[in-house]
Every structure is written in C-alpha cells, then in structure tokens.
Amino acid sequence: MDQPSGRSFMQVLCEKYSPENFPYRRGPGMGVHVPATPQGSPMKDRLNLPSVLVLNSCGITCAGDENEIAAFCAHVSELDLSDNKLEDWHEVSKIVSNVPHLEFLNLSSNPLSLSVLERRCAGSFAGVRKLVLNNSKASWETVHTILQELPDLEELFLCLNDYETVSCSPVCCQSLKLLHITDNNLQDWTEIRKLGIMFPSLDTLILANNNLTTIQESEDSLARLFPNLRSINLHKSAGLHCWEDIDKLNSFPKLEEVKLLGIPLLQSYTTEERRKLLIASRLPSIIKLNGSIVGDGEREDSERFFIRYYMEFPEEEVPFRYHELITKYGKLEPLAVVDLRPQSSVKVEVHFQDKVEEMSIRLDQTVAELKKHLKTVVQLSTSNMLLFYLDQEAPFGPEEMKYSSRALHSYGIRDGDKIYVEPRMK
C-alpha cells in the first residue's frame, strides 16, 4: 500500500514508537530510553525511543514540531530517513538541528535535488560522521556545501546519483576516510583523480559498477593523489582491458586490499589463473584480494605458478616480473601431469582349457555382462560358465566371480591380471 503523503517526522515517530507498536523492552543492548518531555506535552511518557531510529519508507515530507523533536531525540545517534518524500533541505535541517548527538544520517532516495542546500542549513549537520546520499541525485554543489560544514565527516555514500563527472571542491576534506561512489557512470580516470585531490586522507575507495577505463596517470602522481589509500574496489570496471592498469595500483604506497571481479581483462582466465596471476605478478604487496586473505604460502604458490605459466611464452611476451621471480626461485621444472581419473578398461588374459586370449574389458560392466561378452570366445552359455579372477600380485590364488550383479571395477582388476573360465559341473 502507498504511504499517505504529507506526513511529518514527528507524526511518524509517534506512531511507530508508541507503546502499542514498540513496547518497552529491557535487557543489555536494547538502548531504549524515555526522555523527559516539555511541561504539558500530550506525549509525556508515551514514547520508548531507541538511540537508533529507522523511519524509512514512511512518506515523510516535513519535520513537524521542533520542540517535540528536541525533547524526544536528544539521545539519538543514528537516523535512517531513506526512501521518504523529503524534498526541502530546510525541513531536513529542522530535524537534524534538534538531534544534537546525531552521527549517522541516511537520506537515500529522497528527492532532495529539487532544492538548494544553503550553508546555514548544512551547518546543522556539523556533528555527522557518516552521511548516506545514495540515489538522492545530490549535485556536486550540494556535496561541496556539506563538506565545508561537516568537519568530522568520515564516511560518505554517493551511489546511484548518475554522476558522469566529478566537480572539485574548493576546500579539501581532510577527515573523510571512506567514499562509496558505486553505480554511477564515471569513465575517465581524470574524474577519479579529482577524488584524490578532494579527499587526501582517503583510506577506502569503492568504485564498483562504474565504467572506468584505463588508468592514465604516472606512478608518482598516483602516489601523491592517494597517499593513504588502503583499499580499493574496482568490481565491474568495464573499461579495464590491460594488465598495465592493474600494475598502476602498485603505485598507491599503502594499498593492502583490492577487489577486482567482473572486468574484461580477467574473463578469459580460469578462477585459479586469475587469482594466482594477480597475486604473483600485478599485486605482489597486497594482503587481501577479493575479500580473501593472501597468506605467505599462497603467495609463494602463486609466484611459482606464475613462473611455470610463462615459461613457454616467447621472450618478447614474458612480463618483467617473470625474470624477478626466476632470480628468486630459479628455473622450475614443469609439474608432472597426473591423471587421477579411474581406469575405464583394462587388458587381461582370458584362460579357457588350453587357450589363452588377451582381451580388453570394460570395468563399468557387471560379471553377468562379462559372461555375455565371453560367450562367443569360449563357446559356453552364460548359465554354464564359471569365472575366476587371479590378481597377479595376490598370494591366495584365484577368486570366484560368483555374484552376477557385481561390477568388475570392485575387484581392483589391473592390466595383466588373468580371468579363468571353466564349465559348470553338472
């Protein structure tokens, strides 16, 4: 059912967290709090509010009574207002300015691009450390205004905002550690470098599901742009087509974690080849790849795999890393190819009276099926035929093959073994 339009933050708050809908609960970690209300408030002692408020998809369009917000939300630290109908930054400011301890704010999927965020409104966000603006279509001008007024902002989410370019802020945001900017349309690396200029302290950059093309930047420049980058996510960067782009990631001096799945460059390799070639050749210093820890043992296995992978390539096609690893490990012998599949057939000697005939028999057949196969060779009917199997290494003599439904492979028959056929005594 569609939510009714024109509902205020305070109205929804009262409905959701009334004792009927959100009864008081005791116990560790519940975080339930009943604050004192202004003199004469009709809601005195009615609301049981936790410190984390989730009011998503409630049709909220405005703040409501600011005094009531201040009275009930003094302890609130996290607020989820995603997927509502807030389109005026002034209304958002009225809510946030009355939640003094707010650190996390989610405004995703609100039509806030319909209004301009003024600096005096953005000032009410000053204490926020994590801000989510996914699918809000917030302009870069709005983002810049926020950055200037949030001195302690650590995490910023700007996904699904249809960005094709990045507009540099006039002021660097030194506090930001994580930027989540997936599912946009950022193609040219010149746009990504602007993020490094704006956020010099960035620790984690999540760029998945963009159409990023080749990384056109010198190694020295990359190191200056992202001096503190520890983790980067480039999942489904459709424009990455060459190994040189992966090599460029080694220019980030503190990079430890890389996520690289769904890019064209890696599609032609098997899962094993993809991981080992990335670890050994292109990302020799990382400690986590695609979410999995890279241990010392796996790194050595990958480097040895890399040597063997390229040992038959023409000299002009061998990466420089190959020669580095040859210096480390020396030239390696190719791994022996061992076929671990079970044998499907063997060659045996079939003995009948004074005759001996070498035959190839299938091991997936039963004793009864073998008798049918031998019928024309020994000129006996299957009902008048006894079979004995002699393992060439067995010390106990022939074993009668008395069970018609038993499969031949269960006897452990090998090449060179013998099968004796005798007529059944009447």
From TrEMBL:
GO cellular component terms, A-Z: cytoplasm; cytoskeleton
Domain of life: Eukaryota
Main localization category: cytoplasm
Domain Ubiquitin-like: 350-422
Pfam families linked: Ubiquitin_2
InterPro entries for this protein: Leu-rich_rpt, LRR_dom_sf, TBCEL_Ubl, Ubiquitin-like_dom, Ubiquitin-like_domsf
Swiss-Prot/TrEMBL keywords: Coiled coil, Cytoplasm, Cytoskeleton, Leucine-rich repeat, Phosphoprotein, Repeat
Compartment annotation: Cytoplasm, Cytoskeleton
Function, in words: Acts as a regulator of tubulin stability.
Protein name: Tubulin-specific chaperone cofactor E-like protein
